[in-house]
Amino acid sequence: MKDRLLLYDEKKKILLTENHYSPTEIYKINGTNFLFVTRVGNSASGIINLGVYNTENFSMVGELLNDYREIKILADNNKAWLYNIKSKTIHCYELAHQTNKYLTELKSFENFNDYFLDDANLNIYINHNEVLKISSLNNLHKYFEIPKNENNAIDKLGNVFTLENKTLKCTSLHTTYSETVNPDFEVNLETDNFIHIGKHLKSEGELTDLIRKAEEIREEVISSLPDAKTYHYHALSESQKISEIYTTHKIYPTKNGVFIIQKRIKRDFNGVTLRKCQATWTATPYKIENTEITLLLFNSEKVDILIDKAPNLTVYEYLKDMLVVSHQSTKFYFQEGIKLRSTMKIR
Q1: What are phi and psi of 337, to 5 degrees?
Q2: To bridge 293 with a disulfide, which of 53, 92, 109, 313 should be the other Cys (CB 3.0-4.6 Å)?
């Protein structure tokens, strides 16, 4: 059993554990103030307690306790971004001010759906129903809003894609990048890495849920099967068979163009395999599926096919202008549409 120190604060009328006075981390704010950070629990569901300790009077001069989850601590920039788990609000606090004010709120956000932290570029994206708000974590003057329209999409890197009359305009929230291309297909964006996708850039259709279809057929068939039988293949009638093609896209802006990865799945659902184990029948859809993935480079003048109809293609990394993909166990590096090099087999 672990012994614990419990202290009762008569002024605040709360019982404190040693966590309040034994910080997980200590940051220097300035010459006389230090930030005490105590993390309680895990990063997903835990809380963070903050205290500003002043070395001139040897006391805690400001505290935020029990209600907060960490978004980003920026002690070098004299700021802390926190999520209030009770009010479901986001707050930016100034840690210490020269007028002896501590943990002063500088900015807050409320009534949002969710938020995304761009840790690499120190931005926060706050997602509301009709608008996306973007703020720099360091410089609060770098703040703007972008409407979430039916014809635009915004990814987690700050790229904005706007579709007008089959013309796709690609811009960046953080740079002057702008490129306009004309894909000869309906764009259907995959949801990975996107904060918002308007309905003009996302197909309403999806691949059929074959697991559910197989279960429906199982319910229809099993009552007619002999008790001694443990395996049965049920061939679908022509009216029950499903043949479908589903195409999705991923977009990666680059200098003087836009990479588009097109994934095309063709699938035929022809039957259901039934197996019985301990009196329970399970159903597995029998399907024939073919996948073709094509890497394209679009610019304002033409389209180049960089990799054509591969059965598999994985994006390894995307760093601004460079796209790294793996194909046939080999890495390929593309920049501005040029294949810079390829590496040996990936183990």
Answers
A1: 85, -5
A2: 313
Domains of the chain: which residue ranges?
A: 6-110, 115-201, 210-345
E runs forming strands in 20-67: 25-28, 33-40, 47-54, 59-64
How many CB atoms neighbour CB 213 within 10 A?
Answer: 17
Q: Are 118 and 159 in contact (CB under 8 A)?
A: no
CA distance 1 to 127: 45
CA dist 102 and 95 (Å) reads 5
- For 260, phi then psi, to 5°, come to -130, 125
Q: Which residue has the tokens 């089959």?
A: 166
What single DSSP character describes residue 4? Answer: -
Q: According to the model, what pLDDT value does residue 343 have?
A: 66
CA distance 37 to 337: 47
Q: Is the pTM of this model over 0.85?
A: no
Give the integer Cα–Cα distance in Å for 78 and 103: 10
- For residue 225, the tally of other CB atoms under 10 A from its CB is 15
The residues, any chain, with a CB within 8 Å of residue 13's CB and separated by 6 or more, are none
CB 52 within 8 A of CB 95: yes
Q: Which pLDDT tens digit goes with each residue over 23-61?
A: 888 999 998 899 999 988 877 778 999 999 888 887 888
Distance (Å, rounded) from C-alpha 243 to C-alpha 208?
10
pLDDT in tens, 58-93: 788 899 998 999 999 999 999 999 999 999 999 999
Residue with tokens 């419990």: 6
